[in-house]
Amino acid sequence: MSEPKFEVQMLHDRVMIKVEKDSGERRSTGGIVIPATVEEANRLVWGEVCGVGHHVRIVKPGDRVLFHPGDQFEVEIQGENYLVMRERDLHAIASERPEHGTGLYL
């Protein structure tokens, strides 16, 4: 007999995010190669919203969001790692809805 499957629902103002894979080394705007082993303490990362709680007001599943990886709780579901955090801990949303944007595009 197989194990029952349960749907994961986020509660309150929580957001579940799948972190975009880091390609390893990066290149600065000046062309300097920064190795993957270099960690930056205050570096923000992008991820995709996979689920939201009932009290989340702005982001929706599918949005790309910017956040600090230190403000997170990590969970593994079906072999994939996700992060869970509060909506207020997100710094920016990259979306096609240009309502209140910065004029910068990814």
TrEMBL record:
Keywords: Chaperone
Stored InterPro entries: Chaperonin_GroES, Chaperonin_GroES_sf, GroES-like_sf
Presence of the UniProt keyword Lipid metabolism in the record: no
Keyword Phosphoprotein: no
UniProt xrefs under SMART domains: Cpn10
Top-level taxon of the source organism: Bacteria
Matching SUPFAM superfamilies: GroES-like (SSF50129)
Quaternary structure, from the entry: Heptamer of 7 subunits arranged in a ring.
Record family assignment: Belongs to the GroES chaperonin family.
Protein role: Together with the chaperonin GroEL, plays an essential role in assisting protein folding. The GroEL-GroES system forms a nano-cage that allows encapsulation of the non-native substrate proteins and provides a physical environment optimized to promote and accelerate protein folding. GroES binds to the apical surface of the GroEL ring, thereby capping the opening of the GroEL channel.
Record's protein name: 10 kDa chaperonin
Protein species of origin: Actinomadura monticuli
Higher taxonomy: Bacteria, Bacillati, Actinomycetota, Actinomycetes, Streptosporangiales
